[in-house]
Amino acid sequence: MKKSFLLLFAFTLTVNAKGFNPQMQQYINQLKSQAQKEKSGFTDFNAKRGQKIFTSVHIGKRGKNISCSSCHSINLQQTGKNIHTGKLIKPLSPFANTKRLSKVKDVKKWLRRNFNDVYKREGSAMEKGDVLYYINSAK
Ligand code: HEC
User: Is the CB of 131 under 6 A from ligand 1?
Assistant: First the structure.
């Protein structure tokens, strides 16, 4: 009982601080050093830039206008809907869905797929980092 309370407390602190878990932080650090190589003068990722990447509309893989928000909705606290399959998608914001941005393997896989859907290419390290900062702060 006491232990679970402490865990919950620690967890609440992490979420309030918008921190990434250690595994995810390690991935963010990798992206940072990649971004430094891609762009001189790079200092840190930026949620505002991430929001733009997330909400801007592009002609996607299937030749139609699409954005990340098309499936995940504009409000990341809300349930989204896959525009291709009609399946519901649980909220992307870790504030609404604590499982989000917790497993590096899943995050990498879906970023690769989803950037392809919208941008018809993989995201750069900078784009991925920006978008992860945005999702992690989307209240
Ligand atoms: C065609 C619909 C669609 C589009 C467009 C889309 N996604 Fe997704 N996304 C999904 C589905 C489906 C999943 C996996 C199901 C789930 O996790 O609920 C997913 C999962 C994710 C995850 C995994 C999160 C986690 O930790 O579980 C991230 C991150 C993500 N998407 C980001 C993006 C970004 C960034 C874009 C725009 C570049 C984007 N998505 C565009 C459908 C989409």
Answer: yes
**Nearby residues of 130 by Cβ (< 8 Å), 6 or more positions away:** 45, 46, 47, 49, 50, 53
Residue-wise pLDDT tens digits, 8-34: 555 554 444 468 999 999 999 999 999
Tokens of 44: 């840190």
Whose Cα sits closest to atom 14 in ligand 1? 110
How far, in Å, is the centroid of ligand 1 from the Cα of 114? 6
pTM, 2 dp: 0.89
86-104 pLDDT per residue, tens: 999 999 999 999 999 999 9
Cα–Cα distance between 50 and 40 in angstroms, integer? 19
Q: Whose CA is nearest to atom 16 of ligand 1?
A: 89
Q: Which domains does the chain have, with CATH numbers?
A: 20-137 (1.10.760.10)
CA of residue 89 to ligand 1 center, whole Å: 8
